[in-house]
Amino acid sequence: MNATDIGNAQQEIIEEFAFFDDWTGRYQYLIDLGRKLPPLPPADMTDANKVDGCQSQVWIVVSGDAGRLELRATSDSAIVSGLVALLLRVYSGHSAREILDTDPGFINAIGLGKHLSPTRSNGLASMVKTIKAHAEHALAQS
Question: What are the tens digits of pLDDT across the range 129-139?
Fold first, then answer.
């Protein structure tokens, strides 16, 4: 995979959200995306995998190495699960360097920055920060 793939994933998300005329449809789409996330085994729902700074509970599990990181995640909130699904689409399967070099521009491009509550926005920022911290750690190990 290369950085273009990350850009393509973000562009696809932007195009998908453009189909909706209002935020009711966009929120429903987010909830639907979250419902499609594969379940995380209870053994992975540990404090070590829990994201700090989220009002909802969010767990992100990262495997692989600096060359390719695989991410799995879940949340106890329907909308937050949808946000998690978007982040996984953008970042999972990429190298640590690509993850670190890519800001989630789709968030503002689809208007999420303006339409999320402050606590959800903080949680989303915490999820991105957690993913990037895992990427930094993987690079340091390589």
Answer: 999 999 999 99
Q: Which residues are catalytic?
A: 54
Q: Quick one: average pLDDT of 9-15?
A: 96
Cα separation, 33 vs 99, in Å, equals: 21
Per-residue CA distances from 21 to 27, 35, 92, 109, 113 (Å): 11, 22, 29, 15, 17
Range 3-141 classified under CATH 3.90.1150.10: no
Structure-token match 């993850």, residue found: 99
How many beta carbons lie within 10 A of that of residue 141, not counting itself? 9
The two structure tokens encoding residue 76: 């106890």
Beta-strand (E) ranges in 35-103? 58-65, 68-75
